[in-house]
Structure formats: structure tokens, C-alpha cells
Please model this.
Amino acid sequence: MWNRISKHHLFWPLMVLAALLLFNLIYKPAFFSIRIQGGHLYGSLIDILNYGAPLILVAIGMTLVIATGGIDLSVGSIVAISGAVACLLVSKSADQNSLGIVLTAVAVSLGLAIVCGLWNGVLVAGVGMQAIIATLILMVAGRGIAQLVTSGQIITVSSNPYEYIGAGWLALLPFSIFIVAAVWLAAAWLTRRTALGLFIESVGSNATASRLAGIRSRSVIFAVYIFCGLCAGMAGLILSSNVSSADGNNAGLWYELDAILAVVIGGTSLNGGRFYLSGTVVGALIIQTLTTTIYMIGVPPEITLVVKAFVVFAVCLVQSEKFRNVLTSKWRKRRYQAEREVTHHV
Amino acid sequence: MFKRQYLPILVTVGLFVLVFLAGSFRYTGFFSLQVLTNLLIDNAFLLIVAVGMTFVIVSGGIDLSVGSMVALTTMLSATLVEQQGWPPSVVIPLVLAFGCLYGFGMGAIIHYFNIQPFIVTLAGMFLARGLCYIISINTITINDSFYKDMAMTKIQLPGGSFVSISVIIALAVVLLALYLAHYTRFGRNTYAIGGSEQSALLMGLPVARTKMLVYAFSGFCSALGGVVFTFYMLSGYGLHAVGLELDAIAAVVIGGTLLTGGVGYVAGTFFGVLILGVIQTIINFEGTLSSWWTKIVIGVLLFLFIILQRVINVRASKMKVI
Model:
């Protein structure tokens, strides 16, 4: 029984999250208090969900891309572009509070995010580039485009409907949590209740073999990059609406790294072929909780980077089969020298 | 006589000449030796870092930690020299050794635990950047006379132009790298591993040692780049050289090195860095263009060069079939 629990893919991520929360409980019991004020729920846990929302969104898109054996470095730039475009359209309009204008702005920037995703898809599936390089192009150029849109300035907007996306409340909870929940459920339904998830994993294991087996590998790869772009676009809207401004330089900076980290912590292998959406969500929550914890205990926030570095190392080492073999080799039967030599370098 | 494999590097050189000539026709005062030497002066640290990156990419890996390693080097040098009062003659060898060791450690983790270089060097990047902030979150200015001398000394060239000592160091690194890549076993092994690690292993080449040495060399180059950057900025700061890893990768790719490994030239990287520099110079000369155009142009160039590589590769493989 214990063996089955500890082998479950969510076991280690959840243990880490639990350990972090336990630390907070001991350090500051008020961490878990949630109070109702003006019909809204307030508390550190709600904050973690609210501020973690953009990261979770980006990480969900990234999970599917990584599942096909690719990677998308451009999400941070797409976050910046979509926030910049939406804020520019809203700020240029006559009546910033008009719902129609905000909806148009949202539609346009999500459309642009899809175009960005499509561009990545064309380069990876159409031209056949390595994913790291293909998306590196948009990562470099995209940040320039975002700065071009904002003219290097910070665009501020004062629009109630636009603010609602990232800072509004629906019933008791922040609205952004509902967006995330909707995207997560949609992605989970599409990949686990239809054959799409199987296709993605199959393409990630071996794109050529999948094509020969009758799966349209290219279309699947196109679809995941577009979905990832769309997720990043939504995250950009939430981020920029939360602070009612768009910053082409710093919005979404290093988001690609955090998102990849969340995916890896969640147990999805970077080699593709397997993915765990729920693991990714837990991974993103771990990162956000870690950041909040570090702020709370009063360590300079810059230390976050060092902690993150060790988390990445630890997670990678645990996932590395070789490392586990080194640890458990004493209890295993002896291997022949030749066999060890061959398996060593594959 | 003419080998197809030299085509990307010829395109790079041609593009550099073209861009430089275009700038010369458009702006008065552009066509001078000093503009050319300024390219080297302003990009000496990038050149050194990109040379190290070339080896890593040729071996089939990638090193994302170079930018933060440069920052960490400036920070270490500044704090040791200014706050601890150590002499530069001790500090510089120390930071170079530290860079080697850091790269060697990452290489060892990549090789022995079989983790993707992307992730390991990403963690290395976080760690180095974080260590900077642990030392100090503020800028540390350097007033040491040795560093100032290194920064101020101008070496006169015939024709009235000058170069800095950093340029001499950078050119020495390029020459050393050319020798390493094309005339030593280490260089041959690196190309072999990049071509196919499995084959290199079966041929009996020292895969483990070479891979770790490649990352150690890249760590050394980024530390040396950091030292040169310290001469250039005369300060240590945790936000120095943010995004330098992307510039270095872009320079290497524009220089004709294949990101899949096994193919690439140090000389190409040299011209790749010069192209990035000349674009920056043109945007400065234009005056009305803003700095973000640099990023967009670099993105477009990256795209064009990768497409070119694909075309060459596809044609080469078709010829093999026939």
C-alpha cells in the first residue's frame, strides 16, 4: 500500500508542498487564517492562489509543449506582448470603462498570442527546427516587440472592466482563480477524456513512429504551441490587469524558466512522452508558496534564486535514474562490467 | 576546393562586410578604423563568453549560466578587492579558478547523472545570480589602481586609433580557442561528441573527461569575460550582464555553428559577435531608433541564419542519398 502511494506521480510534489505549508504553520500560525471581509475571502492561501494564477496558466500550456518533446522559451515575451497590446488599446480609447472596448482589447491580444504560438508551431513543426532555438527567436524578438508597442514606457490604464480580469472578485474568490480553473479543467478534459492526450504523448515519445501509425504529428505539435501561446496571452492579461499597467521590459521576465521549473517539479520529463497536468499545478503552487514564504520570513527576496537553484538540482537528481541507481546500487544485484559501461552513457 | 561546410561562415563574413559598408555609406564618420576597434572594445567580454559557448554548443550542449557567471565574477572581484582589500594579483586567478570549477561541477552533474544541460545550467544560472545578491544587492564601485589602469590604458595603433587591454585579452582567447578547436585532441574530441556521443564512446574517446572540460572551459571563459567586464564597468553588480547568455547563443548561431552539435567554427563566432556589435553601432548612429530595435533585428537575423542552416543541411543530406 505504502509502495503504491509513494510511487504515485503526485507523491513527491505534494510532500514538498506539504512540507512548505507545515513550515509556515509552525513559523507563523496566522498563515492559514482566512477571514471574510466585505464579502471576499482574504488570507495568505488565497493570495498564493491569486498571485500564482498567471504562472499556473503558463505552466499548463508549457506542460503540453514539453509533453511533445519540445519546449517554449517565448512565453515570457508573449506575456509581455499581450499585456502591452491590451493596455495600449484600452488607454488609447475614448472611454476606458466601456465594456466593449475592453472585450475588443482582450480579443485582439489573445489573437496576437495565438499568432505568436502559431509562429512557434510553424518553425517547429513546419520548418523542423529544434524547439529551443525556434522559440529562442521569439523570446529575443518578442521582448523587443513588446517594448516597441509600449514605446519603452509603462502604459497605465484606469478601466474598471479591465481591472476585473486580474483584480476582480467573483463570489468569494478572486476572478483569476476561476480563469485558471476553467483552463485547467478544459485542458484536463481534452487530454484525458479524448484521444488528444494520447496523441500528444505518442508524438512526444516518437514523432515519426506516430506519423507512421496514422497520427498527424504536425497538427498535434501545431495545436500544443498555439495552446501554449494562448495560455501565455491570458497570463499576460491577468498580470497587466492586476497592476493596471503594462511594462514591456519586465512583464513576464523569467516566466519561461519558472514555468519550466513548475512542469519539471510536477514530474513531467523534459524528454517528452509523459505529462501530468495536476503535477504541474502543484509544481506552480510550490514555486508561489516558496516565494511567499521567503517574503514572509523576512529573508531578502533575492535569496529566492539560490533556493530555486537548489530546488531545481534536487528535483532533477531525484528524477535522474542514474542518481537513484547510485543511491540504491548497494541493494541491487551486481551488474556485469560491460553492461554497466554500455548503460552508463546512453 | 570550396567546401560546402564553409558556406555559413562565408555568409556571416559577407553579411558583416555588407552591414559595415551600408553603415559607411549612410553615416559620415562610420567608415573608420576607430569604429571597427570600438566594436572590439565594447564587445570584448561578449567575444570571450561566446568563444566558450561555441565549444559547449559544438559538443551538443548549451550553457545558460554564462551571464550570471559574468555578474558573479564582477561581484566577487569587487568585494574581494574593495571590501576585503585583497591584491588584484590574487583575486583575478582566484575568480578564474572559481569559474573553471563552477563549469566543471555543472559538467560533472550533466554527465554522471545524465540530466539535460539546459536544466543543469539553468540551475547554475539561478545559483550564480543568487550568490551575487547574497554578497550585496547594491553596486560596489572599484577604485583600485590596477583595475583603473587596465580600464584606462589605450594601446595606440597605426592610423591614430587605439584598442584597450581587454581587446588584446579577447583576441588572445580567440587565438587560443582556434588552436584548441582545430589542432588539439581536445578539440577533435569535442567535435566527435557533438556529432554523436554514442559513436565517440564506442571509438574509445574520453567522453566523460571531454564533456566536463568543455563546461569547465566555458566557465573559465565566462569568468575571464567577467574580469574584462569589470575592467569595462569598474564595478560589481548583481544585475550586470542580464541576458548575456542569449546574446552569446545568438552570436554563436549567427556564426554558423549548428545547435545540434558537431559543426561550428570559432572564427564564425568572432564574426557573429562583430555583427551584433555593428548592428548596435548603427542603431546608435541612427539616433532616432530605440534600443529595442536591436532585439528585433537580432531575432530576425537568428531566424534567417537558422533557415539557411536548414536549407544547407537538407541539400547536403539529399546529396548523400543520391
